[in-house]
Design brief:
Low-confidence stretches: none
Strand content: under 5%
Helix content: 55-70%
Oligomer: single chain
Number of strands: 0
Order of helices and strands: HHHHHH
Shape: elongated
Length: about 130
């Protein structure tokens, strides 16, 4: 989009001086100043929120506990309390993965891309480490 602005000579000089001080051309500097003044577009803000959703997962300590419980289950030495804990952790993990998929779907709509294109661009895989049952 092309916009023609009528600047006063004093404002034009200030714009030019600040652009030169930053080592960029005045037109690029004007676009940056307008962008800062207007703030991010709603879609950009929403994209940031959705991208943050992709990083949700367990802490390293919780992953260690999860792996230990899975090992105990495989060894058939898991107690009922531990099995209940493992079930709760697994439910949390599945919910986190479902939320990630919803975020990718919404990002795909915002970006006008397919789900698979967005998923691949983001380099996503399942949260967690795969293990053999």
């Amino acid at each position: 989009m092309t916009v023609i602005l009528e600047l006063t000579p004093a404002l034009e000089a200030r714009l030019r001086d600040r652009a030169i001080a930053r080592g960029i051309d005045p037109a690029s500097y004007a676009v940056a100043v307008l962008g800062d003044a207007l703030g991010p577009a709603e879609s950009e803000t929403r994209e940031g929120e959705l991208l943050r959703c992709l990083d949700l997962g367990f802490s390293p300590e919780t992953w260690a506990r999860y792996r230990a419980l899975v090992a105990r289950r495989r060894d058939e030495s898991i107690s009922q309390g531990e099995l209940d804990e493992l079930t709760g952790l697994t439910d949390r993990l599945e919910l986190a993965n479902a939320r990630r998929l919803e975020a990718v779907a919404e990002l795909s709509r915002i970006r006008g891309k397919t789900f698979q294109e967005t998923f691949d661009e983001l380099g996503l895989g399942p949260i967690g480490e795969p293990y053999d049952e």
